[in-house]
Design brief:
Layout lengths: L1 E5 L2 H9 L8 H8 L3 E5 L4 E3 L7 E7 L1 E6 L4 E6 L3 E3 L5 H4 L3 E4 L3 E7 H10 L17 H15 L16 E2 L5 H11 L3 E6 L2 E7 H9 L14 E2 L4 E2 L4 H11 L3 E6 L2 E7 H4 L7 H10 L3 H8 L1 H11 L4 H27 L6 E6 H4 L11 E5 L5 H21 L17 E3 H13 L3 H10 L2 E6 L2 H14 L3 H11 L24 E2 L1 H19 L6 H11 L4 H27 L7 E2 L6 H26 L4
Helix pairs in contact: 1-2, 8-10, 8-13, 10-13, 12-22, 13-15, 16-17, 16-18, 19-20, 19-23, 20-21, 20-22, 20-23, 21-22, 22-23
Amino acid sequence: MSSTSKHPPLLTSHLSRQRVFAQLSIKSRDTLAGQFTLATATAGTTLLTQGQLPDRLGFILSGSVRLSDPDLNLSVLLEAGDLFGFGATPLPQLATWQAVAVADCELAWLSAQALTQLCAKHAQLAYFLPSFQPSEQPLAKQASQVSESGSALNLLGTPIRTLIKREPITIAPDTSIQTTAELMRDRRVSSVLLVEQGLLFGLVTDRDLRNRVVALGLDISRPISDIATLAPMTVSANSPAFEALLLMARHNIHHIPVMEGGNILGMITATDLTEQHSTSAVYLAGDIYKQTTLDGLRQISTRVKQLQQHLAAADASAYSTGHIITAITDAITTRLIHLAEAQLGPAPVDYVWVAAGSQARNEQTAKSDQDNCLMLDDAFDEAVHGAYFKALTKFVCDGLAECGYIHCPGEMMAMTDTWRQPRRVWAEYFRKWVEQPKPKSLMLTCVFFDLRAIHGKAELLDGLRQQVVQHTKGNSLFLAHMVSNALKHRPPLGMFGQITLSRGGDNPHTIDLKHTGIVPIVDLARVYALAAGVTLANTHDRLEVSAQAGEVTEQSARDLRDALEFLGKLRIAHQARQMAQGQAPDNFLALEELSNFERSHLKDAFSVVQTLQGVLGQRYSGGRF
């Protein structure tokens, strides 16, 4: 997008024909025209990414623009004469929508501050501008707050390529450390990429210069490759920005090269993704890794609720929110393991800490308990090594409880002797569960068939997982038992399709969004995945890949994904409202919290689940095995 000069002669004419600005006098329009900046954009250009709409008002002089919410898959088409952005776009959408040129465009931009001043002087304009709602706060502050909540957290659907600010700064691996530092100083960058024969070789950041050169007194004439991070993690240019955010959060890094095939397009930093340090997953994870005591981790874990509230306010998808909240749980878990090893010494044999349940599926919210286990190398000897791993797992599990992840009521945790075993014992567990699917075994499969390595030697889990899914693929007897177990969780629909509320217990007249809404979809996706031999744990991803494998139709998988997303967002929003009121988050939703529109969609979501439960039940009870 290119800018041109301000206030061309035709702009005043355009303003006079626009229904909002036509309310002004000729003199006021002339004055206003001088405050606009003109720009042109070719078709396909991203004009404003998520979080940027609150910064300015856009006036389409020619061409067309599409506003869209990539998380909700919603869009509107705007034509010449239409306005968008601050003032024109309603507040609920202002932080979450983005603007892309559909055809070659001419645009006029007005800053949020200039528009605020204009409406203060000409109050009648606010009638046409839905972002200007009555409030005790100044309009500029409202815009600022929306921008703050959106700019950091509403990059979830934005392609990473749109965030690249400059061409990549590259050097040869044999460049000296001193020359590299001078280049970074002169170009005012915090990182450079090492490239050899057009291929990415490594990455060096200002932190590397500080920690690996200055702190160690290293000879600055040595080649930069001596201190570089070789074969660094990368992201695809077409991936959503939240994938870069997750990568940074999980691995405590702040620079990621952006690739398009084998070509280097640029570099993304943590500050490109967000400037809200206190509630950003990247900076929150970074703060977690800085903690040296359990008390420090306990204090920082309280910010997870605030993070979920910001994600809910930003209208982030349930899929993205689950991944981000879970990334923080992973970071806390990993840091607790580091603290345990610092206290107990290095592990005597290889192991992998494994998340189970919702953490494994990347589907956690601020209301989560812990499900985990420990898989040990077969060199493990209980008499020699048992005391070490018992102490390590107790430290971590108790630490998670201190940080708000309560102990699993069923004791499915690594601190429990049964779930802290060598790989050969785990292989025997899974063999018995599949070959002897008794009620308790089926219950355990619902927890331990959803596994993901968090820390340690991931190969211990990966090889076993491959064996297990090959054993379940096509195993119709086992799958029939899994289906029967899955059908115990039913959506709360009555005979005539009406929502039925709980009648007793601690939360009467509510819907349990987790156990009667989300869990049935999780169970269906697990069966599809096991039948197809799919090793993925995330429910959304399982449905997508299982459809490709033919275990469920593309339409049914899409319906279930949409139902999962809708129910997930209801739960996240419900919990955010509770936390804003100082209440502990839960999964029990009262219908009074919903609009009629939402209630209608809730019935549709439950109906989809009910129908597909029936289809799966008939498949495995009708002799198809």
